[in-house]
Amino acid sequence: MGTFYGADRCYVFMFSVDLVTASNTHEWCALGVSPQKSFLQNLASAEFGSWFSSWQEGEITIIADISVLNHTSNEYQLLASQGIKSLLMIPLRSNTRLIGMFGIDMVKQLQDWSEAEVAGLSLIAGNIGGALLRKEAEEKAESLAFYDTVTGLANRQLMLDRIHQAQLQSNRNLFYVALLFIDVDDFKTLNDSLGFSKGDELLKLIGQALQAVLPQGDTIGRFSADEFLVLSELFTADRNKAVQAVTELAARLQHALLFNQDLMSLREKNTISIGCTLFLGGQHDTDVLITQADLATYQVKQAGGNGLSFFDITLQDQAYQRLTLAQELQQALNEEQFELFYQPQLVHPGVVLGAEVLLRWRHPERGLLSPDAFIRFAEETGLIVEMGEYVLFHACKQLAIWQQTPSTARLELSVNISAKQLKQANFSDKVLDIIKHTAIDASALKLELTESVLVEDFENIVSVMQILQAKGIRFSLDDFGTGYSSLVYLKRLPLYQLKVDRSFVADLLTDENDQAIAKMIILLGQTLGLEVMAEGVETVEQLKILYKLGCYHYQGYYFSKPLPLNEFEHYLVKASGGLI
To answer: How far apart are CA 69 and CA 112, in angstroms?
Structure first.
């Protein structure tokens, strides 16, 4: 175009999205004419003076002789510094906004352009604008398809493709490749406390910090939420050297976050858990490799985070067992394989007040299983929420049956509530729906909480408890004194009962410290007007000491182990001769 129109320079400027700056992106110069592209980058739009406003309106700028301009104006200074004598500038626009400018300069002689020439150049400018818009759309589509919108890193799809390419390369050169699965430690706490925008900002900064220390050729991508993948080609066929290389790389990645000032402005300590799987060639599908690295990361998280772990076959076996257990637990819920057992709770001199509900699983192949075999896993996977609702509903159904008979109408049931249940936004509504559905006297229901539940979101927990207490439901604080004991809990929480943990009861006869702690809890409960129950009572000697210390409510194997429903009801008759 420059040659055809006899120009000295022909160029395109592109504006930033906010129209604050403009840069020369494409330039052609005639022989002997000095290029200006390198000098014309990130110019403030204000330097274009009145032209900028006219371009926004779609108007063409034609100056046959720049000497007619005010020599003190921005426009003249900009043109004179480039040796320009005449020029024509045509705005490049989309339907709604200015995106750039197409221009022709004359530096050797003055030039005026005919209407036909202007019309032809305007048509060319329209084609240039259309091409640039198509390119912009293609780049945006590619970015959305292959790059994460928050961090700008490769997304899951692109990482899967890169892993596959690395497998092919490894097949050819027989060098190890490392796939690192990175999980940001304690990210949920920041996200919940400061909000998603701060969470996204943290993830972006972490991605940048990790990318900055990666060797050239390595790839990092955001896999999901607060999880990243790093693909590193190790250029060695020696497994021991590969392990060493990954260990050194992991140390650099961790160090990159520890003292990053931008990250520390959001939160003081930023650590990551890293799991790694090493592979040669394409023996496994990419999904299998990611799962292996994820399992290794899980091992780090279980150990407290901020570390590195390598995948091995033992982890694979554990993964299979966990998958099987998850499927079996869901099936157990669907088929009601769970059964409620009842451990009697008594008050001196031996009257059965009710029971604590404990869950058992009648596994079709493994027989009767205690909670030790499945509760922790249910907590980790979130199944504990559905299981907790199951227990609460069936406990209330049983209370409804007992409340129809005078001899059992005054029985109480204690039901354990998990942290995940209590943190549900609609927990109180679910409990009250169950109460309404079963039509029980709510004062017969006690919900047992552990101290660890209270550590996070204390204010919300207090609010939920107050809502339920207003409907007659009572609360018991289980395992008191074992972890996070605070008088603030006792002062603020609407509690009815404290439970002395079995660990203090077990050594009452031999450990003066345990006896002193038990005495303190009992006195504290009495002072605050709370009922105090000792659990884990197994001998008459323990019972006598507890009675002497002022504890009159008991639970433990001395009285009875947890019993299935029919045996518990027989126990009631035997222990009380029919409850009053």
So the answer is: 16
How far from chain centre, in Å, is Cα 387? 23
- Could you give the dihedral angle defined by the CA atoms of residues 17, 18, 22 and 24, in that order, rounded to the nearest 10 degrees? 0
- pLDDT for 204 equals 93
Look at residue 577 in the predicted model and tell me its pLDDT.
Answer: 42
Domain annotation for the chain: domains and CATH numbers: 9-146 (3.30.450.40), 156-311 (3.30.70.270), 323-576 (3.20.20.450)
- What are the tens digits of pLDDT across the range 52-64? 889 988 899 999 9
CA distance 548 to 535: 16
Spatial distance between the Cα atoms of 56 and 96, rounded to a whole number of angstroms = 10
- pTM comes to 0.56
Nearest C-alpha neighbor of 550 from the set 516, 515, 522, 514: 522
- pLDDT beyond 90 at 94: no
Tell me how far apart the alpha carbons of residues 118 and 487 are, in angstroms, rounded to a whole number.
84
10 Å Cβ neighbour count for 142?
11
Tell me, rounded to whole angstroms, the distance of Cα 217 from its chain centroid.
28
d(CA 19, CA 23) in angstroms, rounded, equals 11
pLDDT score at 106: 94
For residues 411-435, give the mean pLDDT. 93
Q: Is the pLDDT of residue 403 over 50?
A: yes
| Whether 432 contacts 471, CB under 8 Å | yes
Let me know how many helices (H) and strands (E) the chain has, helices first: 20, 21
* Structural contact between residues 143 and 51, judged by C-beta atoms closer than 8 angstroms: no
Residue 459 backbone zone (phi > 0: left; psi -120 to 50: alpha; other: beta) = alpha
Strand 445-450 and strand 474-480: the pairing is: parallel
Residues 194-233 pLDDT 10s: 777 888 999 999 999 999 999 988 999 999 889 999 999 9
**C-beta of residue 311 within 8 angstroms of C-beta of residue 293:** yes
Name which residue leads in pLDDT, 72 or 483. Answer: 72
Query: What letter represents residue 525's amino acid?
Result: G
Q: Is 472 within 8 Å of 396 (Cβ atoms)?
A: no
Q: According to the model, what pLDDT value does residue 350 have?
A: 86
441 with 403: CB under 8 angstroms?
A: yes
- Most confident of the following: 74-78, 104-108, 308-312: 104-108
Instruction: Determine phi and psi for 480, rounding to 5 degrees.
Output: -60, 135
Longest CA–CA separation in the chain, Å: 119
Nearest to 175 by CA among 223, 229, 245: 245
Question: How far, in Å, are 44, 355, 373, 480 from residue 503 at the CA level?
Answer: 73, 20, 21, 10
Query: Among residues of the chain, what percentage have pLDDT more than 90?
Result: 57
Return d(Cα 141, Cα 345) in angstroms, integer. 65
Strands (E) in 147-194, as ranges, are: 177-184
Cα(435)–Cα(390) distance, integer angstroms: 13
Residue 496 carries which side chain, given as an amino acid letter? Answer: Y
Residues with Cβ < 8 Å from 362, sequence gap 6 or more? 337, 338, 339, 368, 369
Distances, alpha carbon 9 to alpha carbons 3, 30, 108, 242, 248, in Å:
9, 6, 11, 55, 53
Mean pLDDT of 78-83: 89
Candidates 565, 128, 566, 88; CA nearest to 357 is 565
